[in-house]
Amino acid sequence: MLWFLICVGLLLAGYFVYGSIIEKIFKINPSRVTPAHHMADGCDYVPMSKKKIWLIQLLNIAGTGPIFGPILGALYGPVAMLWIVFGCIFAGAVHDYFCGMLSIRNKGANIPFLAGKYLGQPAKHFMNVLAILLLLLVGVVFVASPASLLTNITTDIMSSGSVGAVNEEATSRASILVIWTSIIFIYYLLATLVPIDKIIGRIYPLFGALLLFMTVGMLFGLIFEGIPMFRSIGMDVDFGTFLQNLHPKDLPIWPLLFITIACGAISGFHATQTPLMARCTENENEGRFIFYGAMIGEGVIALIWCMVGLSFYESSEAMNAAIAAGTPSKVVYDSAIGMLGVFGGVLAVLGVVILPITSGDTAFRAARLLIADFFKMEQRSLVKRLLIAIPLFIVGFIVSKVDFQVLWRYFGWANQTTATVMLWVAAAYLYRYAKFHWVATVPAVFMTTVCSTFLFNAQIGFGLDYQLSVYLGFATAAVAVVAFFGLLKPIAVGDPDSEPST
To answer: Highest taxon of the source (predicted)?
Structure first.
């Protein structure tokens, strides 16, 4: 437990110390009028309190990534905890903060616009395609995972006899899965179309209560149920253990761990969600609390589920077998029921369910807005929103038929690649306006190496030899650095975006 508390303490210290440094480097302007006020439209630009925005931001960004990713990452051993902590502080929270603040400075602009402004038009066109692809994958993945968990709960209740006798065909898992999938898709369609404060702004506090119960409940289970910490790795833990690769299949830490644990450390999906809340933020001095702080909150959630993965099963082989039998959702279900009982476990699982649902609905909303911006279609009219939303959901339904494991691999790469581009956008902004750019440039180089190595080696990419892929990954990062400093030129004048808006 001591190691877990140290990790949580580091995350909190990161918010107060490193978060303050990032804020000073950016140089906020509290007197500048934000888009929530001077562009208010009653639909997407709606002023909200910072506490409500923080909660919505956390629910938006925390899908199944900070749960499924850390569970899968726990197979590598305690090293997963290191990536969650340091990745969150120095990469993920920095990524989210600059995305949110640059969006505020640019009238609530999305990531393709920011990429075009600070990196050039080719980057904008690339990000338009990548961001829409990522959002579509997120939406589909975040239908499948909560539908699977809800199906587990439903089939267990029915099998207990509490619902009464029904024929076997009607209660089959496949039928129930279809029903829950359809319900979630319908909710997504409604949440995508209506003004952001009508559904998302009103029911998210309830979802937040479930999230809080899930987080505290699983932590309670770890502490008070007598489960030995780090039981699955079968050894005493010291600092040296954190540097070992304990994966039962001996999969390499580099780069797989950094792709596997996505949303719990850094996630490009956040770059697609953060502008939604940037359009509702009332003052720039709220940025660190909302954007940097929500990422720290997600890091705590990721740590808890990583500890569940490291402790609940008697061995990493047993956990790997559970994952193979039913994806990480089976680990979630087994551990929640096992530690909290049926009633508490069901509530905890529901807390997990709401995370992907609250991310999936805003994923489709963000995709709609990206497409609308690209085609310059105003979104005040419901008819205009339907013209984009209906085809988007049809494509999403078709993609949902693809095998979940295949979808997750594509999602992981697209997710981290998007994060990499956003870090380069932040680095370009800082470099061009003579600010301390290394806080974004260093993690951008790191993530470039990770994503390119994975693409060269993975079967969904080029499928090259592992050692060759590592060399090519570092070479790609070197080329990116040369291009960054060679093509971008510092601007002598001050940053015009920091001046009070008119």
So the answer is: Bacteria
